[in-house]
Amino acid sequence: MTNHEHTEHTGSMKAYIIGFILSIILTIIPLLLVLNHMMAKTSLTVSILIAAVLQFAIQLFFFMHIREGDGPRYNAMALILGLVFAVTIVFGAIWIMDFNYVVQ
To answer: How many CB atoms sit inside 10 A of residue 70's CB?
Structure first.
């Protein structure tokens, strides 16, 4: 019988605090942009989407420890597949809503 070591993935308190502060900043920036009407509609939408993608990356790296792990990266492959599904659904919904006026 082999003895497997169980390693627990824990991050440092400094990394959690940095991730939390960055998450708060990336939440406040789009909120201020929307509440103060600082941009046109298209640029506002793009800036919100950029903040959302950055927020997603921060969550993955600082809190979900996506870089940690040994062996095959099944979690990373599942994440990529989930992203493909999400992007397909979002762009499909936008495409359907964009061409809705043709049907009416």
So the answer is: 6
